[in-house]
Amino acid sequence: MANVFHGFLGSDSSPPDDTVLPQEAQPSYQDHFPPPPPPEYGDVPQFPAPDHDFPFEDFVEIPGTPPPQQAPFQPFPPAQPYSCGVCPKSFLEARELTRHMKTHNRPYQCPVPNCSSQGFPSGQGRKRHIEAKHPETVPEAQLWYCPVQTCKYAISGFKRADHFQRHMKQHPGFMW
């Protein structure tokens, strides 16, 4: 039998080239990696964790499971139980009908006397109306002026920021 080396790794002495380690001293695969876990679902193959956000089962046929059932074709959308009493619209949820009814009722009225507005479905709509049509009633109302000196809106300005931004598209190259 060949020469057997019994030294430690990292020691000053090194084994000769013809040294054969005994079977129990040789490194093995099991020394570095834990054994694989036993299958938990019998004969069903174990799949790796998906690297996508859609269900993997939709694309793989798993033995012993029935095929997925398709919903029957419906030529019309499902019934919408919440109907408007003023117009023919209907909704799936009560909150949608409540919001829609404000377009008919217009509960937010302009506080300026003799204003010709019909009211507004939201408080934000009323606020926008007051700032645009009655800026004298709002001391903190801001006007947006065009930076192009030859433009008529450099003097009069805009009462709404979205109108100013739309106007500035007519003057390419100007930053505001």
Automatic annotation (TrEMBL):
<keyword id="KW-0539">Nucleus</keyword>
<dbReference type="GO" id="GO:0006357">
    <property type="term" value="P:regulation of transcription by RNA polymerase II"/>
</dbReference>
<feature type="region of interest" description="Disordered">
    <location>
        <begin position="1"/>
        <end position="57"/>
    </location>
</feature>
<feature type="domain" description="C2H2-type">
    <location>
        <begin position="82"/>
        <end position="109"/>
    </location>
</feature>
<keyword id="KW-0805">Transcription regulation</keyword>
<keyword id="KW-0479">Metal-binding</keyword>
<dbReference type="InterPro" id="IPR013087">
    <property type="entry name" value="Znf_C2H2_type"/>
</dbReference>
<dbReference type="InterPro" id="IPR036236">
    <property type="entry name" value="Znf_C2H2_sf"/>
</dbReference>
<keyword id="KW-0804">Transcription</keyword>
<protein>
    <recommendedName>
        <fullName>C2H2-type domain-containing protein</fullName>
    </recommendedName>
</protein>
<keyword id="KW-0862">Zinc</keyword>
<dbReference type="GO" id="GO:0008270">
    <property type="term" value="F:zinc ion binding"/>
</dbReference>
<keyword id="KW-0863">Zinc-finger</keyword>
<dbReference type="GO" id="GO:0005634">
    <property type="term" value="C:nucleus"/>
</dbReference>
<dbReference type="InterPro" id="IPR051061">
    <property type="entry name" value="Zinc_finger_trans_reg"/>
</dbReference>
<dbReference type="Pfam" id="PF13894">
    <property type="entry name" value="zf-C2H2_4"/>
</dbReference>
